[in-house]
Amino acid sequence: MSALRPPGGRSVDVACIGNAIVDVLAHTDDDFLARHGMAKGAMQLIDGEAAHRIYGDMPPAIEISGGSAANTAAGVAAFGARAAFVGKVADDELGEVFAHDIRAAGVEFSTSPAVGEQAAAGTARCLVLVTPDAQRTMNTYLGVAALVGIDDVDPDLVARSSVVYCEGYLWDEPSAKAALRLAMDTAHDAGTPVSFTLSDGFCVDRHRAEFLELVEHRVDILFANEVEICSLYEVDDFDEAARRVRNHCQIACLTRSGLGSVVLTADGERIYVPAAPTEVVDTTGAGDLYAAGFLTGWSRGADLHVAGTMAAAAAAEVISHLGARPQADLARLTEGIA
Amino acid sequence: MSALRPPGGRSVDVACIGNAIVDVLAHTDDDFLARHGMAKGAMQLIDGEAAHRIYGDMPPAIEISGGSAANTAAGVAAFGARAAFVGKVADDELGEVFAHDIRAAGVEFSTSPAVGEQAAAGTARCLVLVTPDAQRTMNTYLGVAALVGIDDVDPDLVARSSVVYCEGYLWDEPSAKAALRLAMDTAHDAGTPVSFTLSDGFCVDRHRAEFLELVEHRVDILFANEVEICSLYEVDDFDEAARRVRNHCQIACLTRSGLGSVVLTADGERIYVPAAPTEVVDTTGAGDLYAAGFLTGWSRGADLHVAGTMAAAAAAEVISHLGARPQADLARLTEGIA
Predict the structure, then answer these.
(1) pTM of the entire predicted model
(2) What is the mean pLDDT of residues A108-136?
């Protein structure tokens, strides 16, 4: 069993901080990605002009609340556990949609929205193109999500949570990055473990040195997929990346899509978790819901192999339908696992 | 064969006029409907305060463009036919969503959006509750959709269309009603047949006398379900209602959910069309897509039984998934029918 155990007596299981985003999802073919110079499966940041251009070329779409850490928070709540989310919306229609959906999912969400001149950039949206292979390619217009800042980090929330979950994407913006650093420092002072996701291979490329520093010194539980962890250590070999990371984090969860995942601990455990079988419709949110399942299990004292199995089940549910938020009662779905 | 044939040489197959609405869809149980005093399967108009209250109690939702006649226009385009839509959005985020989606569906849409003070009420939204029996119950906040008016009726569009399709729901608002009357008058002058849907049983209750006058004197092709046509004539018996309507319209398409539909003509034809088999997920849009299939077939010169079969196929497609716009290429779906 891992040395890292959740702190006792906390009123929130998982507090998540990330970009507050509404996803705009449409099915396209590979030609669409090529025409717009997009790297399949990746997330790129776009400005308002590019958002207008890409949206104008997109087929009819649907709007569903998203955002990586926000999806994780919704997943934790769908397990019946207690989740909170910190992120910035504007006081516009999409902001109302985001706030409604996350609260209706049962997640505590009290970050004040941007208003007045601050709200001009609007609530963030992510143009998600789902190709026939069920892969998603994301184009994020950050809008006011980038304005989440140190004033939005509530020390009391951090202190009453079993774990804080931080989204690597926040590192792209100075204000959000400062908020993330503060959340990590506050967690350290409060004895709250810190979990972190590397988010995306290109995101790791942009911030490798700082992400390495975080992983080595600040992060207790790390989530990464194969591309991200290999990019972090600039190695080609997954096993080599796995060897490196176990020296740095108490727990590292490394996901490999259909190959399942492996959970590594600093004291030498290595737990293989198979992917749960499902028909893949849209991979958006797979990593987010994996983290939700794992952190729900871990924060409630489950063994790591149980937490890993909950992670795989939650990921399988979310990729079986369009959109990155769970549609099923995940607690019921995983009855009998714990 | 019916005496009523489409006029030749038109550049648009079906021009639709209706409320421009974004649907906000969520799954609920029957208790939710009871708690809010909603009549299952019906559409009720709500004000901003009620919209806020109901939305606040709704589970996480998804946003998909809707609007009855707009869904029909999108359906016509999904058959590869030429569709146009007239309806009013505001220059807000949901208005952008509506305009994007209908144009991306291939529908001509050039109604100018409400701006400035006129836009304050915002783009219309319909809170759609889908219960476990796949029935949908609708709560419409009309916003600026009610402001569609006579200035938005383009005589040139009416004159270059094979048929004009009008939504009964428009009768609820004075400005929209005037626009509908003008569209019908303009169609008459241009030799463009007028089709009309009774929309909803309660809508018929609200406007029975005027709807009767329309059906008797202005409408060439009528669409109604069993509840609506019985309400129109205040009879309990479907066959009696069917007898009455055939004296009034050139063509009447009466739908009966799983029992299929019957197409009646003024010269005595009576064509039964079975419902197309499908797994029912969400009945939102069934009537709208039935009209799309029928009008596409009719406007392109198909026999009535072929048009009816296209109607049933389009309705079956839209009820097999969440949302009231087609997700499939309807032309491919109905290959071999015509």
Answers:
(1) 0.94
(2) 96
Partner-chain contact B105 A60, CB within 8 Å? yes
First to last CA, chain B: 15
Among A29, A62, A91, pick the best mutation site for testing chain B contact (most B Cβ within 10 A).
A62
pLDDT, tens digit, 9 for 90 and up, residues A148-180 = 999 999 999 999 999 999 999 999 999 999 999
B92 touches chain A (CB under 8 A): yes
Delimit the domains of chain A by residue range. 12-18+68-93+146-333
Contact A101 B56 (CB under 8 A): no
Interchain proximity B104–A58, CB inside 8 Å: yes
For chain A, the distance separating the N- and C-terminal CA atoms, rounded to the nearest angstrom, is 15
* Separation between Cα atoms, residue A265 and residue A253, nearest integer Å: 9
Residues in chain A: 338
CATH 3.40.50.10240 fits A12-18+68-93+146-333, yes or no: no
pLDDT band at B1 (very low <50, low <70, confident <90, very high): very low
Task: Show which of residues 303-332 on chain A sit within 8 Å of chain B, judged by CB atoms.
Answer: 323, 325
* ipTM score of complex: 0.92
B175, B145 in Cβ contact below 8 A? no
Closest approach of A327 to chain B, Cα-based (Å)? 9
A135 DSSP 8-state letter: -
Task: Report chain A's mean pLDDT, rounded to a whole number.
Answer: 95
Q: How far apart are CA A130 and CA A139, in angstroms?
A: 12
The DSSP code for A80 is T
Residue of A100, A127, A281, A284 to mutate, testing the B interface (most B Cβ within 10 Å of its Cβ):
A100
pLDDT digits (tens, 9 = 90+) for B266-303: 999 999 999 999 999 999 999 999 999 999 999 999 99
What class is the B12-18+67-93+146-333 domain?
alpha beta
Using 50, 70 and 90 to split pLDDT, how confident is the model at A1? Answer: very low
Share of chain B above pLDDT 70, in %: 99
> Is the Cβ pair A62, B60 closer than 8 Å?
no
